[in-house]
């Protein structure tokens, strides 16, 4: 009986340690972004967070076929066009899809901010981007200030961006 209790206790500890590790990989409010290098649809390389240091960053994770992503991304583009001269950067990371799929969708979508491709899914482990959309808003010092799980209205996104600009 004691062996069974001992094994059960170690199993619970191991399981909870595993879930803590998975949770710890996801950026938290108040933390810095983990480093990640990705290319956009044009082949330009972006090093996150180095490439956007000193700017307010909207880091948006998405996939082709996500209906709320398709609705959000044009409104993000309006924000980007208005506030990029004031230091706003938007990087939209496609998670797990091939470059050709993203390029074709980029042509239809027509946004002016960079669309990055993470075909290998590295961001899933680093940013917890398994479920999309997922959006992080990061201040000029590189600190995560807001995390949005799921869709966001254009009004709310604008309010959050302006609080950081």
CATH architecture label: 3-Layer(aba) Sandwich
- Mean pLDDT level: 86
Structural class: alpha/beta
Low-confidence stretches: 1-24
Oligomer: single chain
Q: What portion of residues belong to β-strands? A: 15-25%
Level-1 CATH class name: Alpha Beta
List how many beta strands DSSP finds: 7
Q: Largest beta sheet, briefly?
A: 7 strands, mixed
Q: Strand sequence of the main sheet, in spatial order?
A: 2-1-5-4-3-6-7
Distance between the termini: 61 Å
Q: Please name the CATH topology.
A: Glutaredoxin
Order of helical and strand elements? HEEEHEHEHEEH
CATH superfamily: Glutaredoxin
Radius of gyration: 18 Å
Helix content: 40-55%
Tell me the number of helical segments per DSSP (H or I, 4 or more residues long): 5
- Which word captures the global form? globular
Brief sketch in words of this structure:
It is built from 5 helices and 7 strands.
If you had to describe this structure to a student in words, what would you say it looks like?
The protein is an alpha/beta fold and 165 residues long. The protein has a single domain, classed as Glutaredoxin (3-Layer(aba) Sandwich), CATH 3.40.30. The protein is 42% helix and 24% strand. It has five helices and seven strands, in the order H-E-E-E-H-E-H-E-H-E-E-H. The chain has helices spanning 2-25, 67-83, 99-109, 122-127, 154-164; strands at residues 36-40, 45-48, 56-62, 88-95, 115-118, 134-138, 144-149. The protein has a seven-stranded mixed sheet with strand order 2-1-5-4-3-6-7. Strand 4 (88-95), helix 3 (99-109) and strand 5 (115-118) form a beta-alpha-beta unit. The longest helix has 24 residues, at 2-25.
